[in-house]
Each structure stands twice: as C-alpha cells, then as structure tokens.
Amino acid sequence: MEIPNPFEALYAKLEELSAEVRALRKAIKEQPERDEIGQMELAMSVTGLAQRTIYKLTHRRMIPHRRVGGRLYFRRSELAAWLDNGRRPTVTEMAHKAMKGHR
Fold first, then answer.
1. Which regions of the chain are under pLDDT 50?
2. What DSSP string describes 14-69?
C-alpha cells in the first residue's frame, strides 16, 4: 500500500497560483501607461469621438491638446479629466440638490 504524498495538493495549488501571477504580470505590462502622450488615435480611443469632431474641438480650443511642429498631441490624463468635467448630474442628484435648496 502506497502512502499518499501530503504535499501533492500544495504543489498543485502553488502551480495554480504561479499561473495566476504570470497572467496578472502580463496584463499589467499590456496596460497602457496612465499618462500616455499620443496623437489623434489616442484622442479618438479615449473620447470615442470621430477624428473630424476632435479637429473641430482643437480648432475651437475646447479640448486639451498641444501642437508641436504642426502636429497635434494629446495626454491621456488630460482627456480623461476633460471628459470628467463634462459630467452631467443624474436626475436623482438634481432632485436631491433641489430638495436641499428648499430647506
């Protein structure tokens, strides 16, 4: 009669955890840098707006951008902040604000 190895379950769990750690490391490496600087493609992916719309907004200086050597550059963090500043309150938030005003 063979005695079961008490460490087999531990080895299996260790291999499972190692695979998860490798997957997490790979995912972290693949994530774009938080404050990435890019051109039109970055602005389009962050905002979801069309290229023509972004050109109009830059012309009107309504979207944060930089122009270097005739080329447009955008910073991911500034675009995200710009989108957050355009947030509109929900109906519930407006009702709550109105109720506070009547007190």
1. none
2. HHHHHHHHHHHHHHHHHSPPTT-EE-HHHHHHHH---HHHHHHHHHTT-S--EEET
pLDDT at res. 82: 94
pLDDT digits (tens, 9 = 90+) for 4-29: 887 888 888 999 999 999 999 888 77
Residue with tokens 């972290």: 28
The phi and psi torsions of 15 (rounded to 5 degrees) equal: -65, -40
Cα–Cα dist 28/25, whole Å: 5
d(CA 68, CA 50): 21
- Collapse the DSSP code of 82 into the 3-class scheme (helix H, G, I; strand E, B; otherwise coil) and give the result: helix
- Whole-angstrom distance, CA of residue 75 vs CA of residue 80: 9
C-alpha count within 13 angstroms, C-beta hemisphere, residue 42: 19
Q: Note whether 42 and 35 are within 8 A (CB).
A: no
User: How many residues comprise the chain?
Assistant: 103
